[in-house]
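Take a look at this chain, tokens included, and explain the fold to me:
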Amino acid sequence: MLEQLYEWIRGIAYFMVFAAMLDHVVPGEDYRKYIRFFTGLLLVVLLVTPLLKLAGMGGEILSLYRGSAYTEELEQIREAGAYFQDIGSAEDPGGVRRKEEGRDGEGNIHVEDIRIEE
């Protein structure tokens, strides 16, 4: 138990040293406030993580994040697929239409005829 406590405190100390170095490296006050805000959020997460593990909620919060991230990515993939499907079904710019003969076993498309309408 004490070893875990020491490890937790050591991790916080390393993070504080890293945050201080990052704060000194960033030029200008404009960016420093954002760096301090972000490192403050990370520090809160570092401080709360052992308490959540003791309560048995560490895995639940991670699964909630993974679930929401998965659904967001799935929605983006669906939107991109619909966009590309719309592009594929529309005529090419300039009135160029293609008539496809078919695909061979290697995934190549053989074009039978190309007509340019003016």
Notes: Residues 58-118 form one domain. The chain has two domains: 1-56, 58-118.
